[in-house]
Every structure is written in structure tokens, then in C-alpha cells.
Model the fold of this input.
Amino acid sequence: MEAIIIIVIIGIIWLVLHQNKTSTKFNNALKLIKKGKYHDAEKILLKITKKHPIAVTRLSECYYLIAEDQKKKKNNLVAFKTYKKVIKCKTLLTNTSDKSSFHRIAEVASYEISKLQFEAIPYRADKKTINDLRTILDYINQSEYSDYMKTKVLINQYKQKIARLLFVIGQHEEINGNYQDAKKHYSDSLTFSRNSEKLVYFNTKGRIEICNLKLNISADLTNVYYIDLADPRICSDFYFRYTIALLQDRKYSESEDYIGQLMGSNNMEVKQIEQICKNEKIKAATGEIEVINSLIRQINNNSIDQLSELYDTIANKGDELDAIIPGIKYDLEEIRPSILNRMVLWCNKNQNFGKVLNLITNYPEFFDSPALMKNIGNTCLGFLKNNILDEKNFKIVIALFLTSAYSDKVMLSSLEETLWDDEYTFSLIDSIGSSYKFHTDIPENVNYDEITDSNISIGSSQKYLINQFEKLINEQELESNFSNQVIDFYENEKQAIESIIKIIPEEIIFATPYFAKKYKIETKILDLLESDFKNYNNEESLEAGIPYLINNSHSVINEYRTAKKTIESLIDLIIEKNLPEFTKKITADQKKLLNRYESLLETLGIKLVDAFKELINNHNADETVLELIGKSISISPLKDKIIYLYCGYAASLCITKINADTMSVFRGLQIMSNAYSLSPNDSRVCSNLVALIRMNILKLFDADRRSRTKVYSLLDKIYSDMSQTFRHNAGELIEARDDFLGNLPADARIAIMNGVDLNEHGLVVKKALEYLTKLGGDP
Amino acid sequence: MKNPYEILGISQNATKKEIITGKMIAMKKREFTLQEIQLAEIQLLNPSKRLVADFMYPAKIKAKRPKLIHVKTPPLSTKIEDIDIDALDSLKNKLYENEY
Done:
């Protein structure tokens, strides 16, 4: 046993000594590294790699420092080999070694190795160089030390170098006419330049597409984005070749689009391409004009389809052809009216009224032509005669007809077209298309004189046409709801056009709202209406403008519309008994807005009275109704009428509710007191108020102090402002006082009247009797 | 409400005499009923009603007689084949090898 203990002790001592020895060696090695004696340190560290956990790390550091030293001395080969030794140190690592520290040194060494290799390979565009670079790059990518930041940068440099060299080889192949080989090298280059070398990438994309064009393969236009970013010479080269390819495919317009990319070039060939494009376009346009000419030659024999084709070609191609052959649009436009006339006549004859309307309304500024407007009018009548009105066309048919029928110019033009062999004259005195007497350019046989047997009324003919149209509308076989919709629309359009004709004293195109908005002629109408309001404060002008509003451009009419809508919504809220919303709506701004328009204010007054009358009829005793009436007093121009309604309703509300025991007499007093303050000489109010005062005073005897105070306050208020009518009705209060006193025992009566030795109850009675006396008018 | 001018087979510029003659011819032709012919005559002899009838008659807008359109085609001075396709060749003068 003792022997074992001794052996263990000896062992421990040996171990401590041995450890001390390794530590000493390690420390010595560190000192040597510090002094730059790397080889001496290396020898010591090599002996303790398995004994000390950081020995391998220090050894690798030692090699690294030796390599750095050699690199500084330009001994790149020795440096390279020594860096390799750093990596080899990995084999010396034990389980106890500090692996992470070693990994960091190995990463740096690995980077230095790759960098030395990169620098050693020349920039030479040959396959061997590229293969060497690729091999090293593969090795680096597979290495466990490639995560080092500098290594990643170096990988990029390898890729750039490979991409550039492949691009150069590609160019050599291309110059030699080996376009397929060139493309292959360019494609390889792309894989290396994609994320590393943008300009090479863009240039390579350009070269590939140039090769495609040289090989007569269509260019991939998805690459145009990259080519635009490539070197300008490559860019121009590509567009030039591509433009020629398009020319060869007879795609002149496209070719012209791309030639724009080369416009900066003064190259003669580019100018030649431009000239070819231009000439080819003229040739194509000439071809199209030849088609038009062939239709013109046959114009008298053309079918309606051929006429339509000719008409559409002229209408649609005018601008396009004019851009190629300047001035051609004018020649084409000259033909248009003749074709339109033929088509209108044909369609009218064949009762194709929809087509007539389409043709005319698509003609530029058709509304300026009385002849076209007349055709519109008679076509709309034809439309109705054929009973083809439906939900899609009724608005336009009605708007077109009314605008046509209400035009004096249309009637005058129609009159002028007829040769009248009699001595008849015609008068505009009652025409419906104007409110003025100064039409421009009236025919000789037209005047403003009174209607006689020989001075014929133009107005009555216009009215006859309108009557005919209305008769036809009523005869349409329409479903009931739709029929109402049509009639409403007709009435609104008619009323609107009549309103503006009445107001505007100028010769403009009077159109219905639907017509004006559809053909964008509403601005002139709205301008004139606003100007009329500004000059004459005529609110009818604003009213007439509302149907013509599209946006917020005409602020005066828009504001008027807002005020009008406010009135409508206030009335709706009254009918809905929506007190909270009604209260919210009566703001100072709204009142200000409504006060701006006399006619609207008048309407508001009438509508409020009507709405409340209806509400009172439908709701017998409702405090909300009373509050609504009360709130509206401040906005109504007919205050007296509203107050009258308020007082009457307040009285009937109090009587009904108090009799039914659903309202306290105090609440009744509050309500009647409010009514009294509004109308102190209303006898209904005063008589009911007196009755309620009496009832409230007689209840004071049993009331608590707080309730009594509230009643006193109201009574004081009434007392401070007693009207003649109130005084006239107040006798009831003196009677009540006398009755009360008469029913009291004599001693109680004397005590109360003298006010001596009264308890609290006695004091209340005394005060109540005093109020009866005061308010009853007894001095 | 048929077009009275069509019923009587006359133009919009017909005189009173032509209207009456038109009525006689229309009655002989019997393309329209007697009532329609009589109504047409009344309409055209009454100036107010004739104004309405005129409104019903399609009008023509001012138009010129359609003329053929002449375009001068410029002579084609340049052909595609004449263009040097390598005129802007970007590899003509130098390679892109030492530019990076």
C-alpha cells in the first residue's frame, strides 16, 4: 500500500515537472517568434505539438511569418511553399488543439497562396491560361478556407480575368468569321461576368446578338436592355445590323423605330437607311391611296360597305398618311362630306337610323352644322317610329333630338333650303330656340314680326315637331319601369335646355345636358350661366347650370348645388326624425352658405314648413319632433311660421302627455316656458303656461328643496318678462291663491299672511302664494 | 308620318303648281293610299306644315365632287444591297482586350 502511494506521488511530481518543462519550451518559442527567430521557434514548437494545445497554431503562425518575410523579399516561390506549410499544419492538430485559431491563420495563408497563383498567371488570351485559371478557381471554391472575405474578392478577380480572356478569344474567332465558336466563347464568358464584370457582361451580350445577325439568325430582343448599356460602338454596330435585317424583312416601320438609336451617327449608311425607310413608307402610303382612288373611281356604284370602308379609311388614316405625305389629309378630308352625304341618304332610305346617328355624331364638330343637326332630328323621329328605343340608346336619341329641335339655326337652314314660290314670310318671334331677337344671317323671308296668315310662325313648327316626338315616345311599346325612366329623362333634358335658352342671350349651341357633356360643349354654357349670375345676381342661372356640371370647375354653380343639396338633406333628416344628424348639419358655415341664395332660402322656408306640417300630422306627441322644429328656427327664413308650429305643437304635446301621465308638470313647464320665450303673446302658449304654473306651484308643497329651486328659477324668468297676453290669462293664478287660502283654517291663514312663527312647510306655502300673487298680476 | 315629298314624288323646291301636279300623278300611280296623298298635299300647301315636312327631309352638307388623289413617289436612289453592312463594325479597328 505504501509503495503504491509513493509511486503515485512520484508520478504526480513527474507530471508537474514535465508540464513545467512543456510550458517553458512553449514560452521560449514565443519569445523566439517575437525576436523574429522563426526557425528556432519552429524547432521547439514541432516537438511540443502534441503536448501543448496552442503549439500547432503558433507553429502555423511561425510558417506564415516566414512566408510573409519571403514574399517581401520577392522570393515568391519560397513564400508559396511556406504558405503551403501553414495549411499542412492541419495534420498536426490533436483533439486538444485550438482549431479555430489555426483555421483563421490557414484562411489567410490559403488566400495568399491563391493570390500568388493569380499573379503568376499572365493575362494571355489562350486556352491554357484560361484552363489554369479555371482549375485554380475550382480549387478555391472547393477549399474549406474560401469563406475568407479577401478570398471572395479574389474569386471575383479570377472570374473577371477569365470572363475578359474568353471575351477576347471570342472576338478573335469573330474576326476570323468563326461566329459559332465566337458565340460559344462569349456564352462561356457570360457565366463568369454575370455577377462580377458588368461592362464585359453587357458587351458580351451585344457581341452575341451581333454574331446572331452575322449568322442571319433573328436577334433576341430581350437582350436590348443590356445592349443599350454596352460600349456605344457595340450598341451602334448592333442597331445598324438589326435595322438592315428589318429592312431586308420589309419591316420598314420597325426599322425606322430602331434607326432612332443611330440618329446621333453621321455615318452615310445610316442616312441611307433613313432614306430607304422614308421611301418605303411613301410607297406603302401610295398603295393605300391607290386603294382609296379605286373606291373614288367607283363612288357612284359603290355598295354601302365600300362607302363605309372608304369613309373609315379617310377618317382613320388621315393623320397617319399625312405624317408620311404632308398635306394629304387635306385632300382626304375634302372627300369626306360627299361620302357622308351618300351614306346618310342611303342609311336613311334603308331605315338604318342607328348607323346615321353614329356617322353624324362621329363627324368632327357635327353640332356646328345645321344640316347635320337637322338630319339628327329627323333620324331620331325615324328611330322612334321604328320602335327601336332601348335602354342603351334612349338617352342619346332623346338628347340628340331635343338639341336639334330646339335649334333655331336648324329650322332657318331648313327654311333656306326650300324654294318658296309664295309670298310667305316667317317669324322668329315665338321660336323656341332663343330668347333674343338678333340671330345672325337670317334669310330674307324671316323676321321678328307678329304672326299672321302670311307671316308664318317658326315656333309653332318647332313645337309641332316636339309634340310629334313626345307622341311617339308615349306610343313606344316599353316596359312600365323603363317607360317611366324614358319619360323622366326626356322631361329633365327638355326642362334643362329650355332653362338655358331662357337665360342665355347669346347665339350659342343650346344643347341638353346629356348632349353637352357627351360632346364636351358644356363649358361655354356654364361660363355664360355663371357670368349671368355675376352680372345680374340671377339665381335661376345657377339652377339651370346644375345639370351641366361634370366636375368642380365652375365654383359658383357648384357651391349653389352644394347649398341645394344641403336643403334636400335637411328635409330628409326631418322626415327621418334624425335629430342628431340634423343638429350636426346646422353649422354656422351651412347657415352662411344658405343665406347666400335668396331663392334657395325661400325654398328652404317653404320646405321646412311643409315638412314639419307633415311630421306633426304623423306624430302626435313626440318631443323629438318638437326639438327638430326648435332647431330649425335658426335656419328658417319663415321664422314666425316655424315658431307658430313650435308653440302649437308644444302646447298639444304637453296637454297630451300630462293628461296621459307620461310627462311631469315640471317638464311641461319647461317646454311651455321655452315656447313662451319664443312667442310671449301667443294666447295658446300663455293659457297653457298659466295652467302649468298653477299646477307646479300647488305641487311645491310636497316637493323637495332641489325641485322647488328649479321651479322658482323658471317662475322668476317668466316673471321678469310677462307679456300683455300672459297678464291677460293670469287671473287663474289669483283664483288659485284665493281658493287655497279660503280652504285654510283662519289661524293658519293669518299666520301665513303675516309670516310670523312659520315652520319650513309654512314658509314654502307662503312663498308659493307669493308667486301666485306676483305672476297673477295682483299688485 | 311619311315624307310628303316622297309621296308626291317631288323635290324640296317644288312650286305650288308642282305640288298639285305631283298629287295627280301619285293618285294615278297608287303607290300610296289616297289619304296619305291628300295629307301630303295639305302638308306641303300649308307653309307651317311644309316647314315641318322640310325638317323631315334629309339634308346634305356642303361637299365637293370627290377627286382622285395624286401623290408623287420619290425615286428610290438607294437600295438595301448598296449599304455596307459592316459600316459600323465595332471590331473593325481594335479588339476590346486591353480596355479593362
Observations:
- The domain at 10-219 of chain A is CATH 1.25.40 (Serine Threonine Protein Phosphatase 5, Tetratricopeptide repeat).
- Chain A touches chain B through 90 residues (CB under 8 Å).
